[in-house]
Write a structure and sequence with these properties.
Pathway: Carbohydrate degradation
Number of domains: 1
Order of helices and strands: EHEHEHEHEEHEHEHH
CATH topology: TIM Barrel
EC number: 5.1.3.1
CATH superfamily: Aldolase class I
Pfam families: Ribul_P_3_epim
Organism: Polluticaenibacter yanchengensis
CATH class: Alpha Beta
CATH architecture: Alpha-Beta Barrel
Bound molecules: 5-O-phosphono-D-xylulose, fe (ii) ion
Strand content: 15-25%
Strand order of the largest sheet: 1-8-7-6-5-4-3-2
Radius of gyration: 16 Å
Mean pLDDT: 98
Keywords: Carbohydrate metabolism, Isomerase, Metal-binding
Distance between the termini: 6 Å
Number of helices: 8
Length: about 220
């Protein structure tokens, strides 16, 4: 049974308190927060004032996905804004190991994210130091895109690598996930499913979360 992490990016920003209440009353354990800087990705999302307000409205885990250049400049800010898990992109970090150490030294769990074109084998030396790997199953920057089928092969390869190394690392998959493909993703070895438009775009987000949880 996977952890479900609805992505706030697809919530109704004119009615955030309603969507947070739905989330609070659902079986989802984590809230996925996408931070975009207009440099690493072509889009700009939301920032600290939004995070700080939502932090006061939920006790669930804050799963923060940084799609930003130089994430090390903001690690302490995200800790202060309430992040529990902070994930940086492999492609955005010149000193990934140092960034992971910095995140963990502040008491957060540390994740590393890979873009769809980045192979699993770049993780070999960092895997023992991270709590989670996030595999992008769409190109980062936007919600509502289609799942890239090759992600299933990547999940299987990563599952094998983690098991062979005897590690306990979460595998989070992000982008284009719905009740239609969730079973295949979980069966391949994923442990955390991010879903934005499939959850907040649905008439009954709580029911969709329940269905995703059943796989
Ligand atoms: O990180 C990202 C996009 O860059 C994701 O977290 C999306 O927000 C997921 O949205 P859907 O694909 O589920 O609509
Ligand atoms: Fe994300």
């Amino acid at each position: 049974m996977a952890i479900i992490a609805p992505s706030l990016l697809a919530a109704d920003f004119l009615n955030l308190s309603k969507d947070i209440e739905l989330f609070n009353n659902s079986e989802a354990e984590w809230l996925h927060l996408d931070i975009m800087d207009g440099r690493f990705v072509p889009n700009i999302s939301y920032g600290f004032p939004v995070l700080e307000k939502i932090r006061k409205a939920t006790d669930k885990v804050f799963d923060v996905h940084l799609m930003i250049e130089e994430p090390e400049k903001y690690t302490e800010w995200f800790k202060a804004a309430g992040a529990d898990i902070l994930t940086v992109h492999y492609e955005a970090c010149r000193h990934l190991h140092r960034n992971i150490q910095q995140i963990k030294s502040l008491g957060m769990k540390a994740g590393v994210a890979l873009n769809p074109h980045t192979p699993i084998n770049v993780l070999y030396e960092i895997l023992p130091d991270v709590d989670m790997v996030l595999l992008m199953s769409v190109n980062p920057g936007f919600g509502g895109q289609s799942f890239i089928p090759n992600t299933i092969n990547k999940i299987k390869k990563l599952r094998t690598l983690i098991d062979e190394m005897g590690l306990k690392v979460e595998i989070e998959i992000d982008g284009g996930i719905s009740a239609k493909n969730a079973k295949e993703i979980v069966d391949a070895g994923a442990t955390v499913l991010v879903a934005g438009s499939a959850v907040f775009g649905a008439p009954d987000p709580v029911a969709v979360i329940k269905e995703l949880k059943s796989f």
